[in-house]
Amino acid sequence: MNFKKFFSTIFQQTKSESPKLKPDDFTKKYLIDYLLSLDTIYKNKSNQGLKFEYFIQILYELAGYQVEITDKSKEVGVDIIAKDNEGQIIFIQCKHHSLSANTPKIVGISDIQKFNGIPGANKKVFITTSFFTGNVNSTQNDYPNIEFIDRKGLLQFINQIVPDLLVEYIFLNNLKENNIKECYKCHNGYIIKKYSETRNYYFYACTNYPNCDYKKEDLSNGHWNKNKRTTQKSNFNSKRSC
Length: 242
Ligand SMILES: [Zn+2]
What we know:
Blueprint: H1 3-17, H2 23-36, H3 45-62, E1 66-68, H4 71-76, E2 80-83, E3 89-95, H5 109-116, E4 123-128, H6 134-138, E5 146-149, H7 151-161, H8 163-177, E6 181-182, E7 190-196, E8 201-206, E9 215-217
Parallel strand pairs: 3-4, 4-5
Antiparallel strand pairs: 1-2, 2-3, 6-7, 7-8, 8-9
């Protein structure tokens, strides 16, 4: 399945849940969701590699390239073929490695040599979510036709094409680390934990109050009336170690 088919399928699924969703918003949502799960380790690793390819294809499309996905690309041994508006052919090789793996993988020289040997492109790009080994970095000049993009380069690349995306990603990633979620009710505010002095209990509320009345008791310590500040300050930030 190519990414356009994949994309229209998940767009239809998401649209059935949020009927007002526009294709542009959806593209942004897809890109951000992907970035937020970049280092999540799934059982199905090939699926994750494919999602990375889709992510890169979308970025190249947004950058104005024509992205070609043909069976031929499989024979050629290249992940993505892009064409710029002057008709120049660009081969793009994608290597997804999670940096949160116990022993994260890095891209070595053999992958580069193999990619370098594939004929038929005016330019080549090797993109990884990980890093290149020292051998690759010290011999980059031997491959003037290849552009090397590692994790940091990937963020710079995104920043060039859709700068807003990176800001949104950093913002949402920050919320995730602090265990704060977008409000389910108004989708405008954020759900934070609060403490009622008068009633002596913790609860969750929307930052958009009084415009949004989302409220939920914090039941993490059992019954609400046992849920007093004296028990434990909060398990809200329990993931953090000081
Ligand atoms: Zn709200």
